[in-house]
């Protein structure tokens, strides 16, 4: 698969400290890449460097296979972005605002109607933007970013400040873009729950460093499930398992074990029964992505 965005050793230093340190980010064609991290982690700074809005202290950015430093104009002509809140004229209507951007970007007028249709603002296009809700303003910002039919769309926390209904709308809109318009999307958020619902790949950044990058499924597999076994005689079962070199933890009426294969679980079950211990429950507990994310960003450990 073709790399749409890749960075090498990308770093940004403000004063004596690094806000972004040695980031190798990789976004492949047709992906929705969720760039995830708590507030102040370095997401905006990274996205700004990818868009040529901030100068890296070290490292390089390649977009569409071309180095940003050398092909900035070409790359940006094929990239749409929404960084921080969208800029618009409140006293003009949505349509008039779109026309301003259309002229600035020198794209055909037909794109305006198309973009307004995609973000479902057609009905409100003649309303002044000062009378728009926050969600409508965000959608207008996305419509502006879509105007030039970009191959890459970069969105920095596009659902910030929206209510759940507004978040849902933007989410569905973004989700539809790769298939509908053949776009690749790079979107940042501090909410795992949000990224989890739309992204195909994630990059997790914390204190300027990338802690994990890859498919969401791989992140899920990083979590080793725990097997909890409830028996009729837990203390005796505990001794039996410990004698076999296992390290069960007796907690809340269950013996908890981790890193077990299916074959080991089956063997334990057989042995408990053979020792005349009834097995009442065998339950698998998977770590939620949320707890994995907190563990990663809380402990700052590298995967
Ligand atoms: N122009 C600047 N001058 C000095 N420090 C800056 C500047 N821009 C960002 N920083 C610092 O860089 C760090 C990362 O900020 P950044 O805005 O990239 O984080 P973020 O992950 O986007 O967080 P948020 O979601 O809160 O915007 C922060 O500590 C911030 O204070």
UniProtKB/TrEMBL annotation:
Keyword Nucleotide-binding part of the UniProt annotation: yes
UniProt keyword Transport, yes or no: yes
SMART domains, per the entry: AAA
GO MF annotation, one: ATP hydrolysis activity
Domain ABC transporter: 5-232
UniProt cross-references to SUPFAM superfamilies, sorted A to Z: P-loop containing nucleoside triphosphate hydrolases (SSF52540)
Keywords of this entry: ATP-binding, Nucleotide-binding, Transport
Family membership: Belongs to the ABC transporter superfamily.
Protein name: ABC-2 type transport system ATP-binding protein
Organism of this sequence: Paenibacillus algorifonticola
